[in-house]
Amino acid sequence: MRFVFHIGRYFMFLNRVFKRPEKFKIFVKQFFKEAEKLGTNSVGIVVIISVFMGAVITLQTAYNLDMAFIPKYTIGLAARESVLLEFSSTIVGLIMAGKVGSNIASEIGSMKVTEQIDAIEIMGINSSSFLVLPKILALVFMMPLLTVISMGIGISGGWIAGFVSGEVPSTDYIYGIQYSFKPFYIVYSVIKSAVFGFLISSISSYQGYYVEGGSLEVGIASTKAVVVSSVQIILFNLLLTQLLLA
Amino acid sequence: MIEVRNVNKTFNKKQILFDVSAKFEAGQTNLIIGQSGHGKTVLLKSIVGLHSIDSGEIIYGNKVFSGMSFTDQKEIRQQIGMLFQGSALFDSLTVEENVKFPLDMFSNKSTEEKLDRVNFCLNRVNLENVNHLYPSEISGGMQKRVAIARAIALNPKYLFCDEPNSGLDPKTSIVIDNLIYEITKEYGITTIMNTHDMNSVMAIGEKIIYIHSGRKLWEGNKEDILVAKEKELNDFVFASELFKRIKRNV
């Protein structure tokens, strides 16, 4: 019953969020501010995770395919497919749910418990749209960019690991990552990451917006935001894979 | 003028307000007093539309505010300034940006005109050289004054104050009370203030309503309150030793 209540309230919340901004000039300013805060400031963590993720995938694949009749380029091919199809979008999504999701929930939650949201409402401003819409659009816009960055860095990480460890010759790896390349896999991953961006920002904002109490409840909302966003990412990953690749 | 007619409010099946009616005149400091947890803040937040009421009417001028949608309420809301218990300044904005916020949202003034207005409002609340500081960098009393400056930035017709003196020392409380009183008179604003501070009541209480257990038990002014007969009101007003002494001398 509680689940149904939250689903209903979440959609009612989204209905308030997706309203015409009060002042377009201010909305654009906020959008870029959020894009920087949520997206650009996350490039560092995405790069670090991607480089190691690509390296580990390549080395694990290399150790498992260490057979004479399997050509070395399949390691590059497997690394590319894993990074493009799954790791760059889903792992980056999960990382962002932790980093950005908790940030959004605690920011909005703190504003709620200190009556800053009431102050916005009193002025006749739709607080949910004013605070949340720029965050949602900024993350939907930035997540695909971060995913594309992650793809490039992840594949490069694999190449460095293979080359440095001596497990995969550079030429084989480069041949492998070009072999039988399907550009749609990038589109698939970009679509997934945009959906994940929407889920993270909207769920976390929802958790923060309905906080009642004090700092303890803000912390709980922050944790809930990460957990619920992560579960939804996993769920939608399956759903979108079935829809887009079947 | 604001009128509250037979307002009832329930939270989670618990009734908080019982048939509350009152009139709050323009150009006057109207005080809602009562013990903590007896419904003052719920009444104030119901009047400004932050809580929807179960029954009754809230009337601004001649418009029934309580029945309007959020969009329809917009016009009236833009004439409202509110001072919250904890100031409710935006943490991420400087003092100047906080006061400029309503101007950015609702006025078509140039940046220079807006800054002039910001400086005027900050000067009006006796604040100087704080424009570029963040709320966390100024004292509680200064935060309250910035909140007043933000509340008056758009020349409101209605000013609401929810326990503006909570957490402030007596001297700063007097400064805030006097500011609210002066601004009310200067601009002919309808001011409604929640308080349980008897010093504020005696200083600026032109019209006072006493709320007890969600019901309006008494209505009068600061002179009347000292000679009122209601037991609950007397228990509240003369709770402190200082006011007991005053009572003995009245």
From TrEMBL, chain A:
Keywords: Membrane, Transmembrane, Transmembrane helix. One of its GO terms (cellular component) is ATP-binding cassette (ABC) transporter complex. The chain crosses the membrane at residues 43-63, 136-164, 185-206, 226-245. GO terms for molecular function: phospholipid transporter activity. PANTHER family: ABC TRANSPORTER PERMEASE PROTEIN-RELATED (PTHR30188), PROTEIN TRIGALACTOSYLDIACYLGLYCEROL 1, CHLOROPLASTIC (PTHR30188:SF4). This is ABC transporter permease. The lineage of its organism: Bacteria, Pseudomonadati, Bacteroidota, Bacteroidia, Marinilabiliales.
From TrEMBL, chain B:
PANTHER family: INTERMEMBRANE PHOSPHOLIPID TRANSPORT SYSTEM ATP-BINDING PROTEIN MLAF (PTHR43023:SF6), PROTEIN TRIGALACTOSYLDIACYLGLYCEROL 3, CHLOROPLASTIC (PTHR43023). InterPro entries: AAA+_ATPase (IPR003593), ABC_transporter-like_ATP-bd (IPR003439), ABC_transporter-like_CS (IPR017871), P-loop_NTPase (IPR027417). This is ATP-binding cassette domain-containing protein. SUPFAM superfamilies: P-loop containing nucleoside triphosphate hydrolases (SSF52540). SMART domains: AAA. PROSITE patterns: ABC_TRANSPORTER_1, ABC_TRANSPORTER_2. It holds the Pfam family ABC_tran. It comes from Plebeiibacterium sediminum. GO terms for molecular function: ATP binding; ATP hydrolysis activity. Residues 2-238 form the ABC transporter domain. The keyword Transport applies. Keywords: ATP-binding, Nucleotide-binding, Transport.
